[in-house]
Amino acid sequence: MTHVKKLEQSTLEELAKIFGDTEHGLTGSEIFQTLSNNNIADIEPKTSKRHRLQAALHSQQEQDGCAEKILEYVEQLMEPRKYIQKTQVFHNRLQTINKLMSFEGLKMEDDGKFSARLSKAKTISEALIQAEQLDKKLIERNIHDDILKYCKEQLKENNYFHAVLEAAKSIAEKIRTKTGLDKDGSKLIEDAFTIKDGKAKLAINSLQTETERTEQKGFTFLLKGLFMMFRNTTSHAPQIEWEIKESDLLDILNLASLIHRKLDETDEN
Question: What is the pTM of this model?
Answer without folding.
Answer: 0.52
